[in-house]
Amino acid sequence: xxxxxxxxxxxxxxxxxxxxxxxxxxxxxxxxxxxxxxxxxxxxxxxxxxxxxxxxxxxxxxxxxxxxxxxxxxxxxxxxxxxxxxxxxxxxxxxxxxxxxxxxxxxxxxxxxxxxxxxxxxxxxxxxxxxxxxxxxxxxxxxxxxxxxxxxxxx
Amino acid sequence: xxxxxxxxxxxxxxxxxxxxxxxxxxxxxxxxxxxxxxxxxxxxxxxxxxxxxxxxxxxxxxxxxxxxxxxxxxxxxxxxxxxxxxxxxxxxxxxxxxxxxxxxxxxxxxxxxxxxxxxxxxxxxxxxxxxxxxxxxxxxxxxxxxxxxxxxxxxxxxxxxxxxxxxxxxxxxxxxxxxxxxxxxxxxxxxxxxxxxxxxxxxxxxxxxxxxxxxxxxxxxxxxxxxxxxxxxxxxxxxxxxxxxxxxxxxxxxxxxx
Lengths: 155, 258
What we know:
The structure holds 2 protein chains of 2 kinds.
Chain A: E1 3-8, E2 11-16, H1 23-30, E3 49-52, E4 55-58, E5 71-73, H2 87-94, H3 104-117, H4 123-129, H5 141-154
Parallel strand pairs in A: 1-5
Antiparallel strand pairs in A: 1-2, 3-4, 3-5
Helix pairs in contact in A: 2-5
Chain B: E1 5-7, H1 12-19, E2 24-27, H2 33-38, E3 46-49, E4 59-61, E5 65-69, H3 74-79, H4 84-89, H5 95-98, H6 103-109, H7 116-122, E6 126-129, E7 133-135, H8 136-139, E8 154-160, E9 164-171, E10 178-187, E11 190-196, E12 204-205, H9 207-215, H10 240-257
Parallel strand pairs in B: 1-3, 2-3
Antiparallel strand pairs in B: 4-5, 5-8, 6-7, 6-8, 9-10, 10-11, 11-12
């Protein structure tokens, strides 16, 4: 099988994959980084959102081999080095931005993607940027609040 | 999805050679092809990724012609500030899709509800492939069908820069594809109007509106016109008559906003 090498959350990793192995599968099944969730597996829900070379992508709609040589960041890379919650994660906890939590890894990664390019987004910009992330619990209001709070703290 | 051999060439020539083998398929950003393969609606023996070809990732504008490489992502076009085309690109799918999806992939697929075909047809753009150039009017051959031959790759797309242009999209909120989308582009020699999402035949030009708008570029110029609902798409999101109605509404909005 082809081999793939990438940097995931700062750690160099190598694995053997099939052509059809998805990035989300490689992260979860091979690297055991199960924080990246697979919701719809049809690129609609965004639960599998991770960063590849700094850009948010749907891990279920990218081949692992396409990430060969790339810098990948997953939800596990969002925590502080001491293991405590990072700023965006803590804001979701503080502002009740999650209920069941299934969509949360993708929401946090999408929010981080937004804040990397726009430190002070409006509510409308937040909602537009999270269009590709579906939550069936919260009604989104507290997710938006969480992102606003994180922006204020990071800004 | 069924397994396949994966290759990622770094030049167009290598990609063309790799695509010459039987049952090989080019892979752009994969935002349509990978879901299609998951459903086993496509099962190529070999996928030839075009994402490693640097010569297909360039955007160049000399003020008269905007040239976008076939491997340029929607996010890159959206960030470029190229007027209506950038606005269109910034509303394709969602941010994560835009970070992977490419203009070449969108045009090669020619989904009847995709956004880019409307921009290409309304702009009278030229599709540059590895062995020829194809005028937009000759490129689109109906739903999911184009003039591309097997193994032919879109290297770039050349858009003549318009005097004014605008794209209006009535979004299907679940898929974010266009329920109807209308791109209006005004050039010194006339106005072109291209419609996506509406017709069973894929993207098309609304020539009656083009004539009216070429005579007078204002929303009022469309007053007496109507589009026949015959041949419009019927699905749970909208009837043919509804889509035909939307075409006129969106054309007027595009003219007003251009």
